[in-house]
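Can anyone check this?
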Amino acid sequence: MKTVLHVGCGRTPITAYTTRFPAGEWREIRLDIDAAAEPDIVADMRDMVAVATGSVDALFSANNLEHVHFCEVAGVVREFARVVRDGGFAVITVPDLQAIARLVADDRLTDTAYMSQMGPIRAMDMLFGLQSEIGRGNVFMAHKCGFTLSVLLEALAANGFSRAGGLGRPDHFDLWAIACKGWMPDEELQALANIHLPAGP
């Protein structure tokens, strides 16, 4: 059975984000900085020493890279690439700063943009971190950087992954990317993207 490392899992199973890692084919290894989330591995994504090099077939990360300073992103991506085996891949999703900026430009900073499992989400939360969680003392929920699609893809391709592709979904305020470890022909990367990335705008 293949293994997928779910980085920054929180209390949310991977199936809440994607149906493309079915339990019958994939074993989810859950990693989070917060022990209260009861992950398989308690670790900071900047230093996943408990995960052996090249030990997972895939890595999934939803809304994590924005939680480190931009100067730390390259190191985090290199750590992601380290644990993925050659021929494996990573699926990354982060907030879309350009889509969020349109809300700010329309003076909708504190209006509800959408509902999540954790409650209403506003531009304020997408830019700076979920305020309800930060207010409870979970300061690791603060956002310290942000991404456009080109910046995200460049960070992936320059730090351990050979190629990366992705898309933005402005109506969902998110970016999705897939990055492969080692050489992969165009048609294989496209096939992975078709499976693991959501439909575009």
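Reply from J.R.: I decoded it. Residues 70-83 form the longest helix (14 residues).
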